[in-house]
Amino acid sequence: MREVINLNKENSETRDGFKKTKMGWIPNDWEIFTLKEVLEEYRLGGNYANTDVISDTPLIKMGNVGRGNIITDKIEYLDESQTVNHEDFLKYGDILFNTRNTLELVGKVAIWKNELKNALYNSNLLRLTFNHHVENSFFMNYCLNSDNSLRILRRIATGTTSVAAIYTKDLLKITIPLPPLPEQRKIAEILSTWDEAIDKVSQLIEKLEVRKKGLMQQLLTGKKRLPGFEGEWEEITLGEITERITTKNTELNDNVVTISAQRGFIRQEDFFNKRVASKTLSGYYLIKRGDFAYNKSYSKGYPMGAFKRLDHLDKAVVTTLYICFSLKKNVNSDFLLNYFEGGLLVKNLMKIAQEGGRAHGLLNIGIKDFFNLKLTIPTLKEQDKIADLLNTIDQEINYYAKSLELLQEQKKGLMQQLLTGKTRVKTS
Predict the structure, then answer these.
(1) Which of 60, 174, 189, 424 is spaced 20 to 30 Å from 301 by Cα?
(2) Does 297 reside within a domain?
(3) How many domains is the chain partitioned into structurally?
(4) DSSP character for 243?
(5) In angstroms, rounded to a whole number, what is the distance separating the alpha carbons of residues 271 and 113?
(6) Alpha-carbon distance 401 to 367, whole Å?
(7) Which CATH number fits the domain that encloses residue 428?
(8) Are residues 285 and 407 in the same domain?
(9) What is the pLDDT of residues 197-230, one digit of tens each?
(10) Helix (H) and strand (E) counts in the chain
(11) Could you count the other beta carbons within 10 Å of the beta carbon of residue 317?
C-alpha cells in the first residue's frame, strides 16, 4: 500500500509534512546531497582499444549504456595485447555514467548486473559506487535516470549537438533529494517490479519477431507451403506488378515525410527534430495511402536500402530521391510488403547497384534496372493466405508492443511520484 499526499496549492508557503528547499518542496525527512557527498568512489575507465576478434575480455563502451540497462547485443572485445588495470573490472551494482556522446545521449546511466564476466569499461564512462547515504545502487540508477536528473544533466553538458561532454567536476556538483534508507529500498523494490514486467514483455516481443522472421524466410521463398497450395511460383519483374509514381505536389500538401529503416514513414519534424525539406514543396512527389517508396540510403539491417508503405496518412510528400510506386491489382500489398521487409530483393539489388556507386550516401541504382528487378511469387490466393498468417503475428506483436508502452509510461509516472516524494510509501 502507498500513502498518497496531496500536493495541491503549488504556490502555498507551507505544506504539511514538506519543507521548501532550493530544489523545491520535499518531504521533511528527506535530505539534499550533492552527488559527490554520496559517492564512495568514482573512476574513469581505461583508454582501451577494442578488436573485432572475440576475446576473454568484453569492453563496455558508451554505445552499450542504455537508459538504466546495459545493452549487451553490441559488445566489442579488448585487444588483448594491452595491459589491463584490474581496478577497471566491473563489479555487480556498479553504475556506469556516459560522459561523452551526442547532446541527446550524453549522461545516460546504467547499472552493471554481471551481464558478462571480466568486463572492462573505457575512458568515456565513469564508474560510480555509493556510500552509506545510499541504500543500494539500484535506487540511484532510478534516481539518475529520472526526468529531473536528465534535465539537470542536459544543463551541465557542454559542446555541440553532435559532440557533447559532461565533465566530472560538474557532475559531482549536481544535487539529489534522498529519502531515508528504508524508503529508498522500498522505492527500488516497487520500480524493479515494473522493470521485471517490462523485461518479460520485451522478451515475448523478441520471440514473436524471431518466429515471424523464420516464417518469412520459409513462406516467402516457397520452401514451406501452406496446406492446399502446390505448383511452381511465377518469376516476374517489379515493373509488371507496379506503376511508378512521379506525381508532383501541385496541391502543396505539407505532410513532408522521410523513410526510417526501423520506423517506416515518419514526419520530418519527428525524425530530424526540424524541417529539412525546401520551402517550396511543389517539386516533391505526392504519394497516397498504400503507395510504396524505396529509400536508396543504406542503414543498419538494410544494406541495400529500405522499402516502406504509407499506412498512417491519406497523402504525404517525399523527396524525389525516393523511387515511388503503387501496386497493380494482381498482387497482395501485405505480401509484397513482407517480401521487401524479408530482404528477398537484396541479392538482386546488389547486382544492379553500380560499382563504387554511392553518391551522397545513396546507392547508385537506375530507374530502369530497378523496375526490371526479378521476383518469384505465388498465385494471388496463396499470397493472401501467407499475408494473413504473417499479419496475425504482427497483430500479436503490436498488442504486446502497446502493453510494453503502457508499462513504460506507468514506470515513468511512478518515478516522477516516488523519486520526488509526491507519493510516499509505507516501509513497515
Answers:
(1) 60
(2) yes
(3) 3
(4) E
(5) 33
(6) 37
(7) 1.10.287.1120
(8) no
(9) 999 999 999 999 999 999 999 999 999 999 999 9
(10) 10, 29
(11) 23
Q: 242: closest CA among 341, 344, 372, 346?
A: 372
Q: How many CB atoms are closer than 10 A to CB 214?
A: 11
Same-domain pairing of 327 and 397 = no
One domain for residues 201 and 296: no
Task: Please report, as a single letter, which amino acid is at residue 50.
Answer: N
Rounded to an integer, what distance in angstroms lies between the CA atom of residue 340 and that of residue 354?
21
Task: With CA atoms as reference, report the closest residue to 216 among 339, 384, 123.
Answer: 339
Please give the torsion angle defined by the CA atoms of residues 360, 315, 312 and 348, in that order, rounded to the nearest 10 degrees: -40
How confident is the model over 85-132, as pLDDT tens digits?
888 899 999 999 999 998 888 999 999 998 888 899 999 999 999 999
137, 129 Cβ separation under 8 angstroms: yes
Provide the domain limits for residue 338: 234-377
Q: Select the highest-mean-pLDDT range: 154-158, 159-163, 393-397.
A: 393-397
With 0-12 / 13-18 / 19 or more C-beta atoms within 10 angstroms meaning exposed / middle / buried, residue 262 is exposed
pTM of the predicted model as reported, rounded to 2 decimal places = 0.82
Q: With contact defined as beta carbons under 8 Å apart, do 189 and 135 qualify?
A: no
- For residue 299, what pLDDT is reported? 81
Contact 390, 338 (CB under 8 A): yes
- pLDDT tens column, 331-383: 999 999 999 999 999 999 999 886 444 445 678 899 999 999 999 999 999 99
Q: What is the DSSP letter of 65?
A: B
Average pLDDT, stretch 7-16? 61
Say which CATH number the domain at 330 has.
3.90.220.20
282-316 residue pLDDT tens: 889 999 999 999 999 888 788 899 999 999 999 99
What is the distance between the alpha carbons of residues 405 and 394, in angstroms, rounded to a whole number?
A: 16
Please tell me the predicted confidence (pLDDT) of residue 144.
Answer: 95
